[in-house]
User: What shape does this take?
Amino acid sequence: MHLNASCPLSRPVPISVLPSPAASQLPTLRQRRIWFFRLACIALALAPFLIAELYLRVTQRVDSADLSVDPIFDAVEPAPLFVVSPDGHRMIIPESRINFFRPASFELHKPGDVRRVFVLGGSTVQGRPYETETAFAKWAELRLASADPEHRYEVVNCGGVSYASYRLAIILKEILTYSPDAIVLYTGHNEFLEERSYNTVGRDANLLERLARRSQLVQAIRERLVAADSADRQELSPDLRTRLDLIDGMQRYIRDDRWRDGVVEHFHITLDRMIRMCHVADVPLVLCVPTSDLVRTPPFKVASLATDGESHDTFDKQWAIAQDDGATETQRLNACKNCLEIDPRHAGSHYVAGQIYINQQNLAKARFHLTAARDDDVCPLRATTPIIETILRLADEHKIRPIRCDELFDRSDLMQRPISDGIPDPHRFVDHIHPSISGHQEIAKVVSDRLLEIFVVKPSSTAEQDYQRIALEQLSTLDETYFARGKQRLEGLRNWAAGRAGRLTVDTQ
Assistant: This one.
């Protein structure tokens, strides 16, 4: 094939038309300069905020007045938990507060050889169904005294029945003025007890919101805005009244994920405030992760999701089989699985499945279902997984080594050997959340050991032997009336839960 001059392909291309390498790079270089200029402007604009953030993180200067503000409740200044005794020598819990607290006191003027520890929490801290004489605060006080005879220890029990974290924060603000050497906090079970609404918390947080929560600058601005505007906050009644104190209390509990998310978010904000209160006051904090019974405690209320007619009929039939003690384990387990396919968060089906897996020694599946039964309980009277995860997350953020009571109470076999299956030993509880007296002693051991670390005390070789002797003396001071009252309170709790422990009922929403 011959190309002639008239063929376009045969014509030579002028050199000036060919693209120059340098010329082709000019737009790219220009774009780079533009982008560099824009980034420099953004960095310059953000520089003051970054500097402020770094400054706040380094200095950690937080106004304790800001930390006293709750984002939900606008609490009228409550009556103090402690008042001066009639003789003027001690601080005591007055008679007006004994409906939720037990008597406790400490010296008005703290002597130099005294180490003062306040223990905050709910009825578990108080020692229910018994009283403070056998609560872990008392056993910790005796262990500290045995380990460190050079000091006198005042371990003050501030456990309030049904008190949630936002009420404990008010007490913490007060007791930080009483020269504490350490604070022990055991909370998380009572967060779902009181009525309140959530309009500003409880939403699913996006990435920017999660980053904002971690920003010291954003939190400082937020606290000042909240402090300045209390119009949206609800009034916190000084008289605690839970939902279950009402005639229709149990009916008030429904499957409401938005409300539950709000409770968890409020708990996160409150616990973070309490940790920072202690930090500002330079008071060591011992943070406990609460534990509860999963094996012997069924959900307090079970509710099924509203479904169409066919699914509803299928669910009812399968749920009847799941609860039928005359059916085989295989039949009941298959029925539970069928129920959970229709309603994956049905607490009753999870509990029955967990019980069957316990019997079959399939502990991994038992733990999954029993934990789900607790978390999906429509009436959550036990700290849920989101509450526990919040404690662990904040402990990590604030560099606190928490006391894992949930791991401390891990199950044991018939020979009392520990089984690391993540299921708390039911024998360590007297009901759904309250430890036995021996369970309180176990908590006291790890709490007192942590306090000895904080106080840099090395126990003597006879410290444990001395403690065992003193502990027996403490028990000998308690007469039969003391234990009888405890059994009566326990029986009252069991009667209150009658009808749910034996056969789980279903409410349809």
Residues 1-18, 200-204, 498-509 have pLDDT under 50 and may be disordered. The longest strand covers residues 114-121. The radius of gyration is 30 Å.
